[in-house]
Amino acid sequence: MRILVDRVRCQNHGQCAISAPTNFELDADGELRYRESFDDEDASDIEDAVDSCPVQAITLDSDG
């Protein structure tokens, strides 16, 4: 699986960075940075990040 972020929809609220800081962060300019791939041990945090996004900009792609 891999993480997909809709950059048009994302408003850089940062809830994902709180839920899954291993994969998401806001840079010095407040822009979202993230890793598309993740380890199985981080899956629960990633699912929390998907659920916590207030604009539903994060999805998981099972083909990745």
From TrEMBL:
Pfam family, one: Fer4_15
Keyword annotations: 3Fe-4S, Electron transport, Iron, Iron-sulfur, Metal-binding, Transport
TM stretches of this protein: none
Keyword Magnesium recorded: no
Cofactors (names): [3Fe-4S] cluster
Single GO MF annotation: electron transfer activity
Function: Ferredoxins are iron-sulfur proteins that transfer electrons in a wide variety of metabolic reactions.
Protein name per the record: Ferredoxin
Organism: Saccharothrix syringae (Nocardiopsis syringae)
